[in-house]
Amino acid sequence: MGIKSITTLLLLGLAIFSLNPQAMAQSSDIAVVVSPDNPATNVSLGDLRKTFVGAKHSWPGGQAIKLITRGPGCPERVVLLKLLAMSESEYKQYWTAQVFRGEADAEPLTVPSVGMQKEAMRLFPGAVSLVNARDVKPGMKVIKVDGLLPGAAGYALR
Amino acid sequence: MPRGRIRTRFDRLLLALLLVSTFSWAQSAGPNSGDHDQETITQLVEQIKQLQQQDHDLEERIKNLEAKQPQASPASGADSSLPAPSPQVAEQTPPPPLPTAPPRDWHDVRGIKWRGFGEVDYQALDQRRPELGTYGFVPGSAANFYTGDFGLFLTSRLSNRTSVLSEIVFEERDAQRYDIDLRRMLLKYEYNDHLKMSFGRYQTSIGYYNWAFLSAAWLQTTADRPLIMEYSSNGGLLPTQAIGVSATGSILSGKLGLNYVAEYGSSDTKRPDINGDGLVNDENNGNQVNVGLYLRPDAVRGLQIGSSYYHDKISNLIQGPSLRYGQSIVNGYVVYVGHGIEFLNEGFLIRDAPLHSSDTLFNTPAFYSQFSKQIGHLRPFVRYQYVNASPNDSIYNDVGLRFGPSFGARYDLNDYIAFKAQLDHTVRRGEPDLNGLHLQLAFAF
């Protein structure tokens, strides 16, 4: 079997794997990342949930929270919906309602790539996002969830 | 690595993705898998778009790296306690900022965000003597179409802590005439999660419904508001709007999730009688105080338990401006919204006590209970409501005793359009029962 064939098979395998968001989520933990200047080092799962439903608007230091999310189908989105116990449709309707209620200025910012998540971390000092631990970039600070980092036994976001 | 080769590999990857997508889709096709398939296809298309975007990002990076290869520096900045990143990531030097255009909604830092909502209704009511028509419904007609409230909703962030919100509603009145109502206009200031203040015209936080369901019919499960929570300009009993200052926030209470709300403002409620006598009562309010507490315990997500107390001084101008009442409104509610279930229960006691005479004080109890369950796109609901105003109460004698159930269903055509069908049966003291059919197409944009 030539190198080309092996490469093609590997790519095919990768493609199959990436097409199943659940398998992807199980294969890698999802990290909670914030801006490097954010002093936060840990967040409880309860507070993380409150943050992503817009019930918490600011960090302990007073910095406004800016939610950055990935689009539907991404492993990060799958884990987010699991965290909030919502379907994709419920999530959209929930945020539209939050905006109409005046509880939020806008829906969470949805970006299409890890690169743009990183850019958002740079642009918004209060930004928080979920990123596949394998894709964490310089410029993203990973914070613990209930005292655990991605990869640790019992880590909640996977 | 030559760019052409990378490009070829990505082309292969995309081809492989398409092939596997087709295979997966074909494999999962079954007699009852239509919705699932649609969702899967949407997700696959989304992933392909993201891969294309990543492809584009990588090409840009390569372009930049090729241009700046001699100046490349080692990676830094990531939390060192992280699990080791994949070799691919570890070997990468930090790329320069990508020259990608910001997403469309990044303009929310500055500028105005517009949203809107609307509804188209059809209602039939078997009333023999016309009552008050609201939202464009013609009382006494066999049935008619109307457009209800059409609203424009604007928000703008002024700084990290201040923002502006306004809700301009075009409300259909008789003969397809539209009134403009600035339902909300708020300058908001958020110091932190414990203190969020608003200045301007707000929707009073008497109870849950008035907070959760604003002018947009799309927000509601049912086609209309419970009578007790109806806007006062449409004959509702409560002062639903006020101009003043409002503060809300969380109270340090651990997993109990205790929050407060405090409002001080002028309501100046003008309320038309709902029994069709054509009278309109300007309550000529004083300044109202409303305070409330509610719990959102961590242990039961979706549960909210709250109570509020409202006080104001009002007149009954039909009887004369000198007759003043102290009006107190006590509310308590238990609400559960989660796992597709919506269970709303609210009770009210409106107490009107004459201030300068020994006349009888009047208590008007009211409650509603509403249950619905999401089943796919469908949400069947049932609601029961009750209002009991004394026939001798000069303020709410047009309401009297009214109670009865409503049944129906909401069907979400997509995330922003809902169709609702509702049947109502209302028992009235001294009047024939009312039966109604209400169809509604509600949308948000």
What key attributes describe this structure?
heterodimer, A: 158 residues, alpha/beta, 6-stranded mixed β-sheet, 6 helices, 6 strands, B: 445 residues, alpha+beta, 4 helices, globular
Task: Please give a structural write-up.
The complex is a heterodimer of chains A (158) and B (445). By secondary structure, chain A is of the alpha/beta class. Chain A has one domain (28-145): D-Maltodextrin-Binding Protein, domain 2, CATH 3.40.190. Chain A is built from six helices and six strands, in the order H-H-E-E-H-E-H-H-E-H-E-E. Chain A has a six-stranded mixed beta sheet. The longest helix of chain A has 16 residues, at 3-18. Chain A is globular, with a radius of gyration of 17 Å. The longest helix of chain B is centred in the N-terminal third of the chain and has 35 residues, at 34-68. Chain B is globular and about 85 Å long. Chain B is 16% helix and 46% strand. In chain B, the strands form two sheets. Chain B has a 16-stranded antiparallel barrel with strand order 1-3-4-5-6-7-8-11-12-13-14-15-16-17-18-19. Chain B contains four helices and 19 strands. Classes of the chains: A alpha/beta (158), B alpha+beta (445). At the A-B interface, helix 1, helix 5, strand 4 and helix 6 of A face helix 1, helix 2, strand 1, strand 3 and strand 5 of B.
> What is the helix fraction of residues of chain B, given as a range?
10-25%
Radius of gyration of chain A, taken over Cα atoms and rounded to an integer in Å: 17 Å
Structural class of chain A: alpha/beta
Approximate helicity band of chain A: 40-55%
What is the average of the pLDDT values of chain B? 82
Strand fraction of chain B equals: over 45%
Write down the oligomeric state: heterodimer
What's the order of the H and E elements of chain A? Answer: HHEEHEHHEHEE
Classified in CATH, the superfamily of the largest domain in chain B is Porin
Question: Helix/strand-derived class of chain B?
Answer: alpha+beta
**Total number of helices of chain A:** 6
Averaged pLDDT of chain A:
85
**Domain module tally of chain A:** 1
Strand line-up of the largest beta sheet of chain B: 1-3-4-5-6-7-8-11-12-13-14-15-16-17-18-19
User: Sheet with the most strands of chain A?
Assistant: 6 strands, mixed
The CATH architecture of chain A would be 3-Layer(aba) Sandwich
